[in-house]
From TrEMBL:
GO terms for cellular component: NatC complex. It comes from Neocucurbitaria cava. It holds the Pfam family LSM. This is Sm domain-containing protein. CDD domains: LSMD1. InterPro entries: LSM_dom_sf, LSMD1_Sm, Sm_dom_euk/arc, snRNP_SmB/NAA38-like. Residues 35-116 form the Sm domain. Gene3D superfamilies: 2.30.30.100.
Length: 132
């Protein structure tokens, strides 16, 4: 392995995780191509501030910004809300729903995307059974 090869991720890894690469024109093109495969699909985008956006991907750009349509924003419940639910139920593993709101069309900046999940459905127009 040469010194140049030891500094760059392998080609296979860079194809799977294009946003982990350093910034060059070709790597931005690979990341954009990789993301473009999900246009029209339902995705869940995890943001660096802890929010999760679920919606239909409409487009991306060279900076890996992602536009979702028909989107919902999900926020984890506060520690106080969880504490109250545990006290009321007496069950330390009580389920507490996430806060959600419909946001419609949303742009998630590429630099804040931490995780992308493909939401596969069994029937057209039906979301999967995964609960946030």
């Amino acid at each position: 392995m040469t010194a140049a090869n030891s500094r760059r991720p392998s080609r296979a890894l860079s194809w799977l995780l294009p946003w982990m690469q350093t910034s060059t024109t070709m790597e931005h093109e690979q990341a954009t191509f990789w993301l473009s495969q999900f246009i029209g699909k339902n995705l869940r985008i995890h943001a660096s501030d802890g929010r999760v956006f679920g919606g239909q991907m409409k487009c991306t750009d060279k900076d890996r910004n992602i536009i979702l349509a028909l989107a919902h924003e999900y926020r984890a419940p506060s520690a106080e809300t969880i504490r109250q639910a545990v006290e009321e139920s007496g069950n330390p593993s009580v389920g507490v729903p996430w806060n959600s709101r419909y946001v419609g069309l949303v742009v998630v900046p590429g630099q804040h995307v931490t995780k992308i999940e493909f939401e596969e459905s069994s029937l057209p127009g039906q979301k999967s059974g995964v609960t946030l």
